[in-house]
Amino acid sequence: MRPIQPRIRLFLSAKRQFSCSHHRREIRSVSELPDRIIPRYQESLHNDLLCLQWPSPPRNVFFIKKENVPAVTDAVIEFSKHVHSSYPSTAMIFENKVASEIHDRLPFPVYTSAADRDTATLELQPKVDLTVTLGGDGTILHAASLFSATNSVPPVLSFSMGTLGFLGEWKYHEYKRAFREVYMSGSGPGDRCAQLTPEKMDESSGAGSVSPEWSSLRGKFMGEARPARVLLRNRLKVGVFDSAGHRINASSDGNLAPKIGGDIHAMNEVIIHRGQDPHLAVVEIFICGRLLTEAVADGIIISTPTGSTAYSLSSGGSIIHPLVPSLLLTPICPRSLSFRPLVVPSSMNITLRISDKNRGRGLELSVDGVRRNHGVDIGTEIHVRGEQLRCRDGVFTSGIPSIVRGTHSTGATGDDGWVGGLNGLLKFNYPFGEA
Amino acid sequence: MRPIQPRIRLFLSAKRQFSCSHHRREIRSVSELPDRIIPRYQESLHNDLLCLQWPSPPRNVFFIKKENVPAVTDAVIEFSKHVHSSYPSTAMIFENKVASEIHDRLPFPVYTSAADRDTATLELQPKVDLTVTLGGDGTILHAASLFSATNSVPPVLSFSMGTLGFLGEWKYHEYKRAFREVYMSGSGPGDRCAQLTPEKMDESSGAGSVSPEWSSLRGKFMGEARPARVLLRNRLKVGVFDSAGHRINASSDGNLAPKIGGDIHAMNEVIIHRGQDPHLAVVEIFICGRLLTEAVADGIIISTPTGSTAYSLSSGGSIIHPLVPSLLLTPICPRSLSFRPLVVPSSMNITLRISDKNRGRGLELSVDGVRRNHGVDIGTEIHVRGEQLRCRDGVFTSGIPSIVRGTHSTGATGDDGWVGGLNGLLKFNYPFGEA
Amino acid sequence: MRPIQPRIRLFLSAKRQFSCSHHRREIRSVSELPDRIIPRYQESLHNDLLCLQWPSPPRNVFFIKKENVPAVTDAVIEFSKHVHSSYPSTAMIFENKVASEIHDRLPFPVYTSAADRDTATLELQPKVDLTVTLGGDGTILHAASLFSATNSVPPVLSFSMGTLGFLGEWKYHEYKRAFREVYMSGSGPGDRCAQLTPEKMDESSGAGSVSPEWSSLRGKFMGEARPARVLLRNRLKVGVFDSAGHRINASSDGNLAPKIGGDIHAMNEVIIHRGQDPHLAVVEIFICGRLLTEAVADGIIISTPTGSTAYSLSSGGSIIHPLVPSLLLTPICPRSLSFRPLVVPSSMNITLRISDKNRGRGLELSVDGVRRNHGVDIGTEIHVRGEQLRCRDGVFTSGIPSIVRGTHSTGATGDDGWVGGLNGLLKFNYPFGEA
Amino acid sequence: MRPIQPRIRLFLSAKRQFSCSHHRREIRSVSELPDRIIPRYQESLHNDLLCLQWPSPPRNVFFIKKENVPAVTDAVIEFSKHVHSSYPSTAMIFENKVASEIHDRLPFPVYTSAADRDTATLELQPKVDLTVTLGGDGTILHAASLFSATNSVPPVLSFSMGTLGFLGEWKYHEYKRAFREVYMSGSGPGDRCAQLTPEKMDESSGAGSVSPEWSSLRGKFMGEARPARVLLRNRLKVGVFDSAGHRINASSDGNLAPKIGGDIHAMNEVIIHRGQDPHLAVVEIFICGRLLTEAVADGIIISTPTGSTAYSLSSGGSIIHPLVPSLLLTPICPRSLSFRPLVVPSSMNITLRISDKNRGRGLELSVDGVRRNHGVDIGTEIHVRGEQLRCRDGVFTSGIPSIVRGTHSTGATGDDGWVGGLNGLLKFNYPFGEA
Ligand SMILES: NC(=O)C1=CN([C@@H]2O[C@H](COP(=O)(O)OP(=O)(O)OC[C@H]3O[C@@H](n4cnc5c(N)ncnc54)[C@H](O)[C@@H]3O)[C@@H](O)[C@H]2O)C=CC1
Ligand SMILES: NC(=O)C1=CN([C@@H]2O[C@H](COP(=O)(O)OP(=O)(O)OC[C@H]3O[C@@H](n4cnc5c(N)ncnc54)[C@H](O)[C@@H]3O)[C@@H](O)[C@H]2O)C=CC1
Ligand SMILES: NC(=O)C1=CN([C@@H]2O[C@H](COP(=O)(O)OP(=O)(O)OC[C@H]3O[C@@H](n4cnc5c(N)ncnc54)[C@H](O)[C@@H]3O)[C@@H](O)[C@H]2O)C=CC1
Ligand SMILES: NC(=O)C1=CN([C@@H]2O[C@H](COP(=O)(O)OP(=O)(O)OC[C@H]3O[C@@H](n4cnc5c(N)ncnc54)[C@H](O)[C@@H]3O)[C@@H](O)[C@H]2O)C=CC1
């Protein structure tokens, strides 16, 4: 058994204080919390966004923040205090390191998981109802990585701090309204979610018996709640196999795949790159088992549509709307005049094989910007396919449910913010001439 | 009423000869034929291709050929003679001009429609069971254009003559095998189409009662028939509206929209272009009603995935597999450093509006390479959205069902030929170095 | 002989009024003016710009303005009035149409050329000392086209009106300073032009004998004059030959080449394009007589470095600094994955040949945005090579000498404004993130 | 002082054997050889290639070969034997490691330099008359790197072994003819080099007194010698400075700059890259001291026109003919939609500064594919400018004089092989359709 780490010990001692009369400044284990509540995502008539519908109010809120930025730390404290006081039955979860950093600035107990990443992943998955991120796109990618081994990711509410990112939907100052919208979503008949299926909402969500948390809040906030709208971002499923065809699992120090085995999920992309080796990489690419080509290049990107505005964009890929069920294959600096980026259905398998022509060296594998280069040697195969949106009776159980920020003024509830992001953030088709 | 054109007259006189004893060299009206047989397209387990299933054998075969190439004319004669003799209950349909050109070289009556394009369209749609094209991609596009006003396009079997095209699947010398495969498809229990839904095939296709045409052929050809595999190519739906919001219909001389009104369908793309005007075009682009950008460019392409290897490719667009349900927006020579091609879900509407900044002139509109520039003035709006694949009980009623050529040797029945086309035809990622 | 056109007649009658006592509102012939003064362009030590050096003050100023914009007309009137009153020995030349439009708003006689373009060209070349343009890039291109048949183009001082262009250096409100800088350039020993060759300036410019116009102005303006800095923009030389190898000269109605015969010069580019024909153009490209490739495309651009930020940029070409002695070959929407833009030395000949594969139709030829499509049929050859900078004893006799706007504050006299234009106008590498 | 390495020792002992009667299998020091003969490069009338003119026959031939390929080793032995027997007054020089490897397979003494790279560089520069490379482009780059600290590089005759490279002009089987052409070049009046300057060749090359080596060979080879044609490839000059502005010289273990100090020259390019760090690099780019932009990217390439077909091509740069005097600035995967490759005159300085925004880490610097990352930390500046072609009286003293392979059959002596390379090697504009 692995030695207990300092932070875990702190947490254990906190646990021992249970009988104490004052709960504040405590760090508790996330395992003490009730299991997560699985929300439904209802299709709506007029657009491709889904309506978030909690069967009962969310209870376990997981805050993830950007590291080493004091202003973000202050924000997460302010935010969690607000949630604690306005929604008293919610519990606040933080990453282990963050819990240690901030728990004594909070007047209520905080929950955390093990410091060890794999264990944390196992502990968090069954508990988290809602993830809140404060930071940039990197923070959201990090949050996604903590759920990279599960199909059922809790909804993510993300706030950009400082520079606005492309994935982060909300501005921090909107946090009260945003949280309320998510918390109340699906709480009652007033929801304006025009449903595709005319089935009775009441029944499906426990007719009539609106939870007391919701009813009490109803009174407080005037007006009806608008349901939170969700963009289901599909991920990649990535499996790594050695030349003998065996799945490469993580050793204690590696992080190629979670201990649990199986595929890892990527929100943006998986990349094979020459890394610091100044020589070209050689990668064989197969689509549905058929050899497409042998790429001689700096690297190869397999990206989700979400990732089409990340590395793939820099490498010349097209911009793909996140709801196009597809995989992008974009080369990085290919040594060819005729390697055009490809887009295939997300149902097709793409395999990257590290060619024997790489003169003995391995290549670098990274997922969502994090290097995972344990064992990516010659002959190694990376198997990639798109996560399939599985929808049974309106319950989608895949993808990353990202809460979309509405443009209230216009009432254009179908607006998924994508066009706005292209113009505002990417300076898409920025016109010539003096500003 | 419009005057009867020479060719129509020929046809009318042919009609009068009905009582004659010898039927050969006749030209008859397609309207005399029985109504078309609607096939089913069955999903299969292992791939994204569909299995063609005729409830009973096809009867009305429509041959379309490239113009002005004697070798192609010879081929269409040879081909139709073969069909006539091997599948005696089939009728051969040709375009009006072609019927006049070749009927006296054929020992059986041929069928045709009116010379007038709009009338032809109306006459052909309810009759054609199967379209066979001989020529290049342009011939297929032309065939598609004849069904551009209907949702339910008959399956297309296309042979490349001379230079191999990207859309044309079959080589001419395979015509006997290809036709037989299509004709027999779905004829019996031997079909190797692993079905997704375990429902009894027999029932759905009229249990037990295999049609006599099929049974007699069964004997002749040894071995079981492999079902024809179909790639359902989604089209664009294009509507043109004047600045007052009225749909622009075709006048007698124009061809903006079929007389029947409603949208036209495009297999490759719809394009707005500056044409011969040496000045830049200005086009406003809206996605789902929201202004994306004002494009200053040579033109704008809205393309299907099928069209991604056509004009869009030349303009820098990515290559999209035909089964990704999407629309491509690719600029032609945009006056901006930051106009990257976009790909959106096929369910989203894209509107192109001819901006007032075009200094009074109109722009050129073309659909699948054919100019349709009647009335594309300032303020005109082109509304485009993707055809939605509609599937009810295994009957898809949209898209262009294109018969895919199999690679028999490998038995890889899931191979849709796309990867092969990239390598063989587009010279995708063609390696450096002396051949 | 061609009939005298209305405007010419006006001009002739103006001529008859010579004996009249009041010269104002007159339109005189440019042929009455003294011959132009050829300036020298001196290389300087620290940068690639040249110093303009008049042997004696310029006298004949040619104003060219954008058409149909009242504000620009007002500006040209204000500007020419200023020049008339501050530099009394200068004469104002306008294009024929403009002269008619504005002469009665000016209190002094104006000069003009024939309305007929070819004749105008012949008349203007020997007379114009300095061209001043007011408008956009199109106005500068038009000015250049009037000198497209000569090697020795007078310096161009260009002001942008309204939207800032990439070629137009100066803002209109700077007109007084700009004109003075150009007028005085090379007038005396105070010039800060660090010369490469240490030869005595006094001798070369007529030692000691500073012209009276200059001396009188010296007193007026305090401080020493800074010499005007010149960017010599190299042009293309374009010859059009029929399939028999004969140079195609302009008929009376065409404008392929000036009547004078010989090559025409292009400032931006020469383009072969499919025009309104929806089918691909086929063009054979030769470099130094050797077949490079057969291009199947919308068109082909041969551009100067100056034109690299015009159409070539939209077609994917790199941005080339105007002083790189080169020609760009950029395809427009080529039907190939592997047609990368090329840059060759300006000394190399490029020939475009309209291929026989164009199915009988001709293609469109345009030079600097103006169509010149008389006779560009199958077999026609377009011969292009770069204008060679000829420099003998510091006298450059080629290129378009464009007066560059200095950044006075920084004193960076070597700054040619190119980097500023990339950032300010083209939004080069515009950063992501909310503005 | 550094310990004598094994190979040097071998060489020293070889030296001691000088008095021995048999010279074979010896390894001697290159310093014993006579000083190199500086050839002239004469401009010719009809093209941009230069004519190589030896004042007297070359004596010291430096063979460089690809490592670890037995066939290449065999070739170099065969080749040097041929030179030894046919041109008896020549001496064969090899790299230290190669000399040890092959000297005992050669029946004559070989010359070499110190094993230490910096010392080797110092020893070779004053001695080598002609460099012969056998291998690929990498071998030529390596050869160039050995002369990267000098302006005056001896001519390079390069043979491709196996895969044909873009820089390597000759096929190995042509080695006899090729060597003879180079050896005899400028040997007499029969040279067909049409000279630009009509000065007497005889005088300049020592009138009348044709060297005995040449006269004896004249007899042997029938026919007149054609002069070798030279493509002068311009290089980059690269200086690396720390944030305090001090030039960073090489420590004993680094290789940033030769011990001799001063700039290093690059044949292809200099690159700043994020290397294995998965985060974007931030680099400030200055042109002529003016801030162009802050690049956020994988890296930045500053390339010669020669290097335009190397990494820059893969990163989207245009293809530039090697004789265009320019520098290319090509970004690698820039995080911007509007970073287009730039081309500036080779006389302009480009400075890359490692921005403070790189979060503390350094970046990777590489020159011609070799990493030289000692000290490329935040604040480090890379100063780059193009080597200026210096020509005084027909003696060019800069660039890499590369012997061009002629196409004898055509007699097109002006053909520099560039167009052929685009088509044959890069598959430029490779046409669609089945091969
Ligand atoms: N040359 C390039 O463009 C490179 C891009 N990356 C991208 O960075 C990602 C990792 O992000 P960080 O850890 O923050 O690394 P980072 O600190 O290097 O920043 C990456 C940048 O990409 C942006 N970004 C991330 N995902 C995005 C998305 N889906 N759409 C639009 N922009 C997005 C971020 O806002 C940030 O500006 C990787 O998944 C990869 O896509 C990584 C290396 C090089
Ligand atoms: N610069 C360009 O690339 C241009 C392309 N076109 C394309 O041509 C099409 C019309 O075809 P034609 O009447 O035969 O005109 P065409 O005779 O000008 O030939 C167009 C070429 O495109 C090919 N093509 C057509 N559809 C394709 C597809 N989906 N994928 C790959 N290649 C395809 C054809 O094989 C042919 O080589 C238009 O729909 C448009 O996409 C039209 C004009 C310019
Ligand atoms: N798709 C495109 O980018 C097209 C570009 N053009 C360009 O337009 C030029 C003719 O100009 P106009 O008569 O004003 O036509 P125009 O009214 O269509 O405007 C052309 C645009 O190009 C700009 N421009 C012209 N020369 C430039 C240069 N050297 N660098 C940067 N920008 C430049 C002008 O400022 C204007 O914005 C042609 O020489 C051609 O280069 C012409 C047609 C299409
Ligand atoms: N993604 C890419 O395209 C990369 C390219 N390189 C290039 O490789 C060069 C170093 O060459 P090696 O040591 O052989 O590395 P290498 O073994 O990685 O091969 C580089 C390839 O580039 C080719 N090459 C080199 N110089 C060329 C030129 N001027 N024009 C056309 N092709 C050229 C070579 O033939 C070889 O195929 C670097 O100078 C850099 O330009 C290096 C890393 C990545």
Automatic annotation (TrEMBL), chains A, B, C, D:
InterPro entries: ATP-NAD_kinase_N (IPR017438), ATP-NAD_kinase_PpnK-typ_C (IPR017437), NAD/diacylglycerol_kinase_sf (IPR016064), NADK (IPR002504). One of its GO terms (biological process) is cellular response to oxidative stress. One of its GO terms (cellular component) is mitochondrial matrix. The keyword Cell membrane does not apply. The keyword Kinase applies. HAMAP family: NAD_kinase (MF_00361). Belongs to the NAD kinase family. This is ATP-NAD kinase. It comes from Xylona heveae (strain CBS 132557 / TC161). The lineage of its organism: Eukaryota, Fungi, Dikarya, Ascomycota, Pezizomycotina.
